[in-house]
Every structure is written in structure tokens, then in C-alpha cells.
Amino acid sequence: MKIRVLGCHGSSLPGYNTTSFLINGNVLLDGGTITSVLTAEEQSNLEYILVTHAHFDHIRDIMFLADNLCSLGKERPLIVLSTPCIIETLKQNLFNDAVWPDFTALPSSDNPVLKFMAIHPGHNISISSLKVTAIKVHHAVETVAYVIEAGDVSAVFIGDTGPTEEIWQAAGTKAGLEAIFVETSLPDGMQELADKAGHLTPASLEQELKKLGDLQVPIYLYHMKIQHREVIKQEIARLRNSSIHTLEDGQIVQIGAL
Hints:
- The protein is an alpha/beta fold.
- It has one domain (2-254): Metallo-beta-lactamase, Chain A (4-Layer Sandwich), CATH 3.60.15.
- The chain is 23% helix and 28% strand.
- The chain has seven helices and 16 strands.
- It has helices at 40-44, 60-72, 84-93, 166-173, 191-197, 202-209, 229-237, and strands spanning 2-7, 20-23, 27-29, 48-50, 78-82, 107-108, 111-112, 114-118, 124-127, 130-137, 143-150, 153-158, 177-183, 219-222, 244-246, 252-254.
- Strands 8-5-4-3-2-1-16 form a seven-stranded mixed sheet.
- Strand 11 and strand 12 form a beta hairpin.
- The longest helix is centred in the N-terminal third of the chain and has 13 residues, at 60-72.
- The chain is globular.
- 43% of the residues are buried.
């Protein structure tokens, strides 16, 4: 599984992209940054987008991607997967012919640019060469994490979340787990705000990682608020956990053999 980090930040400034991961060249996990990074050819190769939740920094570029794909004349629709609740939020508030055209009916209802497909928490589906399971986590709005398996290896992508339980239980028992991608948005000094907003700090991340027990697996941090990034990194360093790595835009993470 080849994971290309298109964006990994929890806010936006020049040179810092919001969240999106490209998996094996044709599957996106979240869509905060797509069209400003991928070429037209790379965009046309996309087949699926897994959406963790409907906050704008995770979905923004799906709008512009749909517009581009319509102009490019992509023959097969791009499938956007998430829970029924999240899909309904996208339909009502984004692709509603008011904020943005409804690309599930363009260029025609028989040949749309986008199709929405529901994935129910606790169930798994197969897309491309991957098996995907959605698991609910605790955030300000409905949000899911994804367990993604490719052959005998797997990775866990935890979208925005505060302290939660089920996804850590799933990670702790998942065979072939080689990576966990998890947010850490705010510094310890903003713990009260983090709790209200459904985010993690280095201190609460440390408590969450204890739920893995003795399992040792690389932990990749993302979704830091840019203004607090250096403080968060200093606080992470004080945890003295060699399994923790901070992601950068443009980074490639290889899971399993090439």
C-alpha cells in the first residue's frame, strides 16, 4: 500500500495543505487537498474517495475535482463513500445546486461525474484491491475512522477525533497492522478547547496510545493547527515515544512490500 500525503494539516496557510491521502494512486482518503497537487491525469485516475466526516478541511477539493472531471470527460463516475449521515450532509450542504452544482446529475443523471455510496460502521467493503472497514469515532460531528487492508497488511486512518474506544480496540487486534494515522490538533495548553471540539493534544494522544497495550506500530501524526505546530512537536518529543512520526505534505509512506 503506497500512501502519498497530499495534505496533512488542520488549518490552511500558503505551503500547508489540508487533509488528504492518496492510496495506490486511485483511492483518496478525505479531500481537503486534491486539485492543487494532482495533475489532470492523476485526477482522472481516481476511482474512490473515502470521507471521514463533512468538515470543510476534509472535503473542500472534492468540489473542484468534480468540476475538473466533468471537463475532462471521465467515462466512469468517481465513487464517494461514507456513512449515510455524512453523505446526506454533503448532498444537502455542498452538492445542492446552490453552493455547488449537483455533480451526481451532471453531465447527465445517466452519466454522472459523482456517485455516493454508503458504508455502514462495522461493515467492510472491497474497493479496488483494498478491503475497507468504517468505525465510528468521537468528534464534533459524525466521523468515522477507516481500517484499510491490502493483502496481508493493514493501516488504520483515524479521522478527527477526541478520546475514543472502538477504533483502538480494532487496531489492537488487527493482524498485519503496520501503521496508524491519527490527528493531534492542538497543544496541551489548549486541552479544554480540544475536548470541546473533539480533538487530541499530545497529552490526550499519549493516553489514547496506551489503549494499544504492548502493540508496537508506527504512529503517523497529522492535522496539527499550523499556528501551534512547533509547540505540538516539542510536546510530542517530550513523550519520548520512538514510534511517533510527524507527517509532512508530499511524504510517501509505504505499507508492506513494494
